[in-house]
Amino acid sequence: MKIQITFKYKNDDSIKVIELTPEQYFDPIDEGESYEEDSIPQYDQTVDFIRDFYPDVTADALEYSILNIQGSVESDKSIKTTYFGNGSDLIYSIDHAGWELIIQSIRVAENCIVITRMERENAASDWINVSFTTGLNYDNKEAGETWFSAKNGEYIKQHIVLD
Fold first, then answer.
1. Which listed residue, of 18, 30, 74, 154, carries a Cα 20 to 30 Å from 64's Cα?
2. 6 in a domain, yes or no?
3. How many C-beta atoms lie closer than 10 Å to residue 115's C-beta?
């Protein structure tokens, strides 16, 4: 299995490449398990893997990152993240079977983020599970996050006040 992260800083023309072993990318597995079938990535975001090698890196400093996993059956995928800064990004993921996922996160205020998520089985299929949500007090567990879903009609007659 080949695991590679390619990334670029915003103010640097050079492209950096990190090679990871399955042990560096996945959480530890139990005896009798395999990275192919039983593994879970250690982190949700590619920038967190980059931090293992470049501890001072921030998402705001990056232009993009591309995570590629090849040489496996179930785990093959590519995840490209474009970083807009201030907690906003666009993630595009495609796996070995052609399943696609797009997540766009836009921070509209210090404590508010809007997330659009779309997924489909393959390039020939329609987008399914399209969602649009807004999180207030995002990343502030003490203040208590509040989420509104457009799909559930929760925006109707809501007066949202930001600090």
1. 74
2. yes
3. 16
Q: Establish if 101 belongs to a structural domain.
A: no
Q: What does each C-alpha distance from 41 to 20, 63, 109 come to in angstroms?
A: 12, 23, 30
Give per-residue pLDDT as tens, 35-94. Answer: 877 788 999 999 999 999 999 999 999 999 999 999 887 778 999 999 999 989 999 999
Q: Based on the domain organization, do 89 and 130 belong to the same domain?
A: no
Residue 98 and residue 122 in contact, taking contact as beta carbons nearer than 8 Å = yes
Residue 44's contacts (CB-CB under 8 Å, 6 or more residues apart) are none
pLDDT range class, residue 20, cuts 50, 70, 90: very high
Range of the domain at 144: 106-163
d(CA 9, CA 64): 7
Tally Cβ neighbours within 10 Å of residue 84.
15
pLDDT for 156 equals 57
Question: Element (H or E) spanning 25, and its range?
Answer: helix 22-25
Mean pLDDT for all residues in the chain: 88
CA dihedral 26, 17, 98, 135 (to 10 degrees): 70
| 86 and 116 housed in the same domain | no
Q: State mean pLDDT over 115-132.
A: 90
Domain count, the chain: 2
